[in-house]
Amino acid sequence: MPAVSSAAFAALASGALVATVVDIRVRRIPNILTAAMAGIGVGLAASGVSGVSLGGSVAGFILGFLLMIPGHALGATGAGDVKFMAAVGAIVGPAMVVSAFLFTAVAGGVLAVAVALRRQRLAATLAGTGRLIAAPGEAKKEIQAATVSSRFAYGPAIAIGSVLAALMG
Fold first, then answer.
1. How far apart are CA 167 and CA 169, in angstroms?
2. Cβ of 151: how many Cβ atoms within 10 Å?
3. Which H, E and C letters describe 101-116, residue by residue?
4. Rounded to an integer, what distance in angstroms lies between the CA atom of residue 78 and that of residue 158?
5. How many beta carbons lie within 10 A of that of residue 55, not counting itself?
6. What's the pLDDT score for residue 139?
7. C-alpha torsion angle, residues 93, 96, 101, 106 (rounded to 10)
8. CA atoms lying within 13 Å on the CB side of residue 149
């Protein structure tokens, strides 16, 4: 059973499914989707249905946004990913958005390896990761120099991480 209310879990899971499908197809997460998710999260909190207070919903939104900003500043995630995690925070609150972020990081790593294997680029991906670790100051240049063939949609990782966090509480 999810650690959030059934209504909140339904909103999270539905939004995550739509974000995943759209991000895979068009490599964007639409503002209308993230705004709707955030609005539903705040609305559920305001009505006392989600198990998250109104202040918790707003704090979750802000924290979700702040957690994703460094990756966006480096060019590793898109603005839609940032807004998606903020919307998740509005639904699940601040404590659970931290868990969602951590689960997302793990899911993103697993998906990156799977995508690299599928594209037959695992060695190149691991070499690039090694360069990022060895010279973190060069991370932004390394990430921005990445070719389209080495990028993948991150929305599915956020969806997986967020739903897992809600299920595991």
1. 6
2. 15
3. HHHHHHHHHHHHHHHH
4. 12
5. 11
6. 55
7. -160
8. 8
